[in-house]
Amino acid sequence: MSVSNTEVFAEVRRVTEALANEDVSTFEALEEFRVKYLGTKGLVKGFLEQMRHIPADQRREYGLVVNALKQAAELRYQKAKAKLEAEAEHTRAATLDLTAPGEPIPLGARHPIAITMERIISIFERIGFSVADGPEIEHDWYNFTAMNTPEDHPARDMQDTFYIVGAPGMLLRTHTSNVQARVMTARKPPIRIIAPGRVYRNETISARSHAQFHQVEGLYVDEGVSFADMKQTLFYFAQQMFGATKIRLRPSFFPFTEPSAEMDIWLGTKTEEDRRLTKGTGWLEILGCGMVDPQVLENCGIDSSRYTGFAFGMGIERQALRLFGIPDIRLLFENDVRLLRQFASAL
Ligand code: PHE
């Protein structure tokens, strides 16, 4: 083997010298160079594999020779790579048009529902209400029982919901009134809160009803809070939100308020749109409201002989349609950016 050993040594040295003549003037050529010398099936690897045929007393020297080849190949590769990259960068810089307009960063837009909610919130914040929050997955007690709607109460049918399998007593809240119950059990009056959020009802889905929608509720509990306070607060809201000049309160029923009412705002019947929205009456229903039932106060640990309060609740979707002139509620949920981007500057 000594003859062929000598040949192997000579071959490694020859390859090492020849390497300087390889073409590495383009990225493609450089990659070919890398594969040929340093790749997993490349020359360096191949020579190393021959180590086992080299007599033990020559292995050290053979290792040095192959290593010299490897280092020479790596050095050539790194130098050529750095040179090519510097050239590419130079060309790029030379052709870069510093006066060209920048890539636009697409600005997101707030959803009409979010914008509407924020308007409502800011109106009430101006008169001393602050935002309170509560969970959408709620315990039966906060959503129904505390709000004077016990298990077998017929009003539960008005607000059928989704129950959580395997979690007895847990459901998706049907109104943000659960926040009223939570705040009243946690704090003492004076309480003046506004509760925006998403709510759920188990209804047959149609163009008019969704299993999911948004509400804002309000609650004011203190000594001496009266029906007149409620009326004035809601009138202020109607003025600020809709520019309404008149409101009316019609008797209604909610298990958690007594007396209860629906509030309408006066739109009039002048335009086609107003006649359509108000079904020819000029009045548009906006929200439900009433004096907090003393039983609800007691359920939440508030002394009903000392405190009174009012509460109100409204859906957001229809108000958003009116505010932005959107003709169909389904458009609010389709997430079509062609619709949504129109409101980018609406705040
Ligand atoms: N929680 C009622 C609903 O979802 C609205 C409401 C709130 C009515 C507060 C009166 C007082 O329909």
Helix content: 40-55%
In what range is the share of β-strand residues?
15-25%
The unique ligands bound to this protein are: phenylalanine
How much is the average pLDDT? 91
What is the CATH class of the largest domain?
Alpha Beta
Q: What characterizes the major β-sheet? A: 7 strands, mixed
Strand numbers in spatial order across the main sheet: 1-4-5-9-8-7-6
Q: Count of DSSP E strands?
A: 9
Give the uncertain stretches in residue-range form. Answer: none
Q: From the coordinates shown, what is the CATH architecture of the largest domain?
A: 2-Layer Sandwich
Alpha-carbon distance between the termini? 87 Å
Number of helices: 13
Gyration radius, in Å: 38 Å
- CATH-defined topology of the largest domain: BirA Bifunctional Protein, domain 2
Structure description:
This protein is of the alpha+beta class. The protein has two domains: 5-95; 112-346, Bira Bifunctional Protein, Domain 2 (BirA Bifunctional Protein, domain 2), CATH 3.30.930. The chain contains 13 helices and nine strands. The chain has helices at residues 2-18, 27-38, 43-49, 56-95, 112-126, 140-145, 155-158, 177-186, 227-242, 272-277, 294-299, 317-324, 337-340, and strands spanning 130-131, 137-139, 170-172, 191-200, 212-222, 247-254, 257-266, 283-292, 308-315. The strands form two sheets. Strands 1-4-5-9-8-7-6 form a seven-stranded mixed sheet, sandwiched between helices. It has a two-stranded antiparallel sheet with strand order 2-3. Helix 1 (2-18) packs parallel to helix 4 (56-95), helix 2 (27-38) packs antiparallel against helix 4 and helix 5 crosses helix 12. The radius of gyration is 38 Å and the shape is elongated. The mean pLDDT is 91. Bound molecules: phenylalanine (PHE).
